Amino acid sequence: MIIANPKTLLGGMAIGLIASAALAHGYKAGDLSIEHPWSRETAPGQTSGGGFMMVLNNGTQPDKLMSATSPLAAEVQLHSSSVEGGVMRMRRVEGGIVIPAKGRLELKPGSYHIMFIGLKQPLRKGQQVPVTLKFQRAGKVDVKFTIQPIGSTGPMEDAHAGH
Ligand SMILES: [Cu+2]
Predict the structure, then answer these.
(1) Is 6 within the bounds of a domain?
(2) 88-133, pLDDT tens digit by residue?
């Protein structure tokens, strides 16, 4: 028991540290928490890019991500990805993406994502893309997508150290 207790305590502290780091790059709007919005550095000549994030819904009513805009892109669309005949295809989502009550929506590579189309400047590692998200219930939320290196597959903590 005496040995087990400090271990339990350390486990709790580790979880606490991870949780507070997550809050370093998160946003709240009504019942929604938006965590780790991130994008990827563009290659030369690349004029579109993906946006990814986790949206948590603490409310008892579902919400919907309806649309998004950014001053850096001519157009921002909501996309889904699926594999058809061994080829990854993206499709525009019409009518919004549901965030279930007491549930979550994860935008990630190979799944739902935000698509920045007609980028007005290259996305450079370490910089941020300002985006206004529009939710059906929570309304408009201004967030910043941290630009991570090409090839990133998930949000990186050290990519947003310093803010
Ligand atoms: Cu896409």
Answers:
(1) no
(2) 899 999 999 999 999 999 999 999 999 999 999 999 999 999 999 9
Tell me the CA–centroid distance for residue 161 and ligand 1, in Å: 27
Distance 132 CA to ligand 1 centre (A): 18
C-alpha to C-alpha distance for 13 and 109, rounded to whole angstroms: 31
Q: Is residue 2 part of a domain?
A: no
Distance 80 CA to ligand 1 centre (A): 7
Domain span including residue 76: 28-152
Ligand 1 centre and the CA of 115: distance in Å?
Answer: 5
